[in-house]
Each structure stands twice: as C-alpha cells, then as structure tokens.
C-alpha cells in the first residue's frame, strides 16, 4: 500500500518536523519497498537516483530522526546489518511490529503480520501491572523453497 507525498507531509508536520526532500525521499523509498528490510546503504542507493547530491551521512541522520519520531522501525535480523522499514501508523500511534521468519539456509526474511500475542500482553498487564507497548519476535527455520530442495535431495 503506497502512501502519497501529501500523507508523508502531513505525518511530518504532525510530528513537528520540517518537510524536506530528503525526508520525503527516505519515507517514499521505505514505503515503496515495504517488507524489504533495507539497510541505510540500500536506501542511499535508491534515494541517490533521484537526488544525486545527497550524502550517506544525511541518510543516517534522516533515519535516526524518523526513528525517533516513530515513523520508521529499526530491525536487527542477526546478520550484522541494521535494517529499516516504514512504521505502521494506527490512530497516530505506532502499532506492533510484524514478526519475521528467517530462513537459516538461504537467509530470506519473510514478514508475518498476524499478531497472536495480544492475549499474552493482556495477561502480563493483569498479573504484573506492566503495560507492553511493543514487542519484536523472530522465528528461525527453513523457507518452503529450501525445505523442498532438501527433500528433493533425499
């Protein structure tokens, strides 16, 4: 689902941020590559196509600002790279991250959007008084393609 430039401008203004080309381009790249889990360098390469004078340091500063404003999420997929994705806005608040399925054979990362932990979060709050704001969950295994390859080799 693509988000329009006007929606990005509105989000930035609501967060008290100045609307700049760099911020808009970073948000657009992330929105256009949803579920790709991009590094700052990946984002830089794509932004540079439309805005060749931009520097990598500007991308890092922009990502940090957007992260602080909860417009993007930072993800560590245990591959030595920090990755970013556009945040999911729900009623002006960041809703739960989707979960990640990580193939240990080929390294593919698949999103899993169903959040099945709502009951657990309610139970935690009832039993401890601790209010869960967010969580992150990663499942490690084999994707169906790698699983099929392994079965075919047997």
TrEMBL record:
Keyword Electron transport: no
Keyword Repressor among record annotations: yes
One Pfam family this sequence matches: FUR
Domain of life: Bacteria
Signal sequence annotation: none
SUPFAM superfamilies membership: Winged helix' DNA-binding domain
UniProt entry keywords in alphabetical sequence: DNA-binding, Repressor, Transcription, Transcription regulation, Zinc
Family to which this protein belongs: Belongs to the Fur family.
Name of this chain's protein: Transcriptional repressor
Annotated organism of origin: Dorea ammoniilytica
């Amino acid at each position: 689902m693509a988000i329009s430039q006007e929606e990005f401008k509105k989000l930035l203004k609501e967060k008290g941020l100045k609307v700049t080309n760099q911020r808009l381009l970073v948000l657009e790249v992330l929105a256009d590559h949803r579920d790709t889990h991009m590094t700052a360098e990946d984002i830089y390469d794509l932004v540079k196509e439309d805005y060749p004078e931009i520097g990598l340091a500007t991308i890092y500063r922009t990502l940090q600002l957007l992260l602080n404003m909860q417009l993007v999420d930072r993800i560590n997929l245990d591959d030595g790279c920090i990755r970013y994705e556009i945040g999911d806005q729900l009623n002006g608040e960041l809703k739960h991250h989707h979960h990640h399925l990580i193939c240990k054979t080929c390294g593919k990362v698949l999103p899993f959007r169903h959040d099945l932990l709502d009951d657990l979060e309610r139970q935690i709050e009832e039993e401890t008084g601790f209010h869960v704001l967010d969580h992150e969950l990663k499942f490690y295994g084999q994707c169906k393609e790698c699983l099929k390859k392994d079965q075919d080799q047997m």
